[in-house]
Amino acid sequence: MTQPTLIRREGAHLRTALSLADRSVPVLPLRAGKVPFGNCLACRGNVCGGRPNMKTPGPCDCPRPCHAWAAATTDPDVITGPAWGKAWAQAQAVAYHPGGAGLTVVDLDNAAAIAWAREHLPATRTVDTTRGQHWIYQGVMQSSNKVREGIDIKSRMSYARWLGPGTGTMTALRDVVRSLIADKPARTTQVVGAVAVSAPAGGGQCPHRTPTYLARGIAMAEQRITGATSAIHATVYRTFLAVLSAHGRCGCLTDTDVQRLFTAAQTKGESARHCTDAWANAQARLGV
After folding, report:
1. Do 108 and 178 belong together in one domain?
2. What is the pLDDT of residue 166?
3. I need a labelling partner for 136 at 20 to 30 A (CA). Which of 122, 194, 231, 288 fits?
4. Is 0.70 surpassed by the pTM of this model?
5. Averaged over 188-209, what is the pLDDT?
6. Are 118 and 38 in contact (CB under 8 A)?
């Protein structure tokens, strides 16, 4: 099928995506609910450690296109190719990866957030959304949700809906915008009781000469989780994977060790379900 024929069949969303890609803006299709399509078969069943709704990729080494923001591309052969199949025909919107385009989007979700931004943030290009506005700056920073009530930051490792070019002159990203991450209110999370996950039974030869090696490993794993400032879910999964890789086959891990890791993860905001899923996914990947 030729590209012009495909464009006519798949409609306006594909035309928009190709136009953006031609301007070096990485794009991807969104299905109902503003959720990316599950493009990566290797991630089926959440085995890569990403969130089940596919909005956040896990630490996988998938052939492109992967899922969520990692699927965003400027390659017209990928955009119109078989990997996305009928996605554009079913798409409800076009999304783009702001960080990949060298941009940061301040997503203002309501009138109060817009009023606060007008008072505290430098003027820049604005795009109207369903409930508020996107303020778009030239420059890249860490993404983060809920930096203030009704305000999210979308840049690296994130995606935003394409709602048009907007109005006004785009300005450079300023420190006052970057500081929203540092000034983000701390989230208090109630850690639930013991999680019903047991340490692997093991049975292999233990390579550890002293219990100190395990104790140090668990302490370092706790520090890695509690010290994470972004990509918390992926960090938890990678940490569980590292612990199980080092200690999961010989049987030296105890239920107390597992609970320490789960408590650290839940303190960072992970739910008990996400902890259990990440632990099970790590076990499945390693076969322990």
Report:
1. yes
2. 95
3. 231
4. no
5. 56
6. no
